[in-house]
Amino acid sequence: MNAKKSFTTLSLAFLTGGFMSSVHAETFSFDTDTAGSLPMGWEQGVTGRGAARWAVQPDESAPSKPNVLRQSGVGSFPWVVRQGSSIEDGWVEVKFKALAGEEDQAGGVVWRWKSGGNYYVARANALENNVSLYYTKDATRITLKYVDAPVPPKVWHTLRVEFSGRKIRVALNGKTVIEFEDAHIAGPGAVGMWTKADSVTAFDDFSYGSTRGKR
Prior knowledge:
CATH architecture: Sandwich
Order of helices and strands: EEEEEEEEEEEEEEEE
CATH class: Mainly Beta
């Protein structure tokens, strides 16, 4: 597989315990996208006030060189989502590094994204050293749970969320930090990345997958 591709796609089907399951997964490394611009096939915006500024940038520290996707705009909650993605049950994962920010230094992922005002989000914050789970309804962010966790700045971390029905599991650097059940946002939606306020955050190796089972 070409490690320099901007994204890779994986489809699997297998029989387990009497269930036929299928997995569709994609990974985006942004390595063949044009520096200084939003990568093709993505949509950016902000929940609340301000303006998002998501752009591909070279970064020698990138987990997969040479590029990352960096958010440097200032807004309430800047987001970027993969156009055409529609996941109800599955996972979303990204590597992120908090670079700067006086009000916040956050990196997060969104799923079941219906619009710029309606989605789930999990984020890690390098200023607060915690991980939080929220749902956003009509552009209002509501806290479901947060836990203390070390999130040093200028260091790459991996944030992963697995979701199926009401169940949500959030992991930071391979360790589960939140397990929660919630039904505020149901059905399929887009997936993507998220920041807060004046956070300048780099992202790399964004991946997501959908799972479904059938007897």
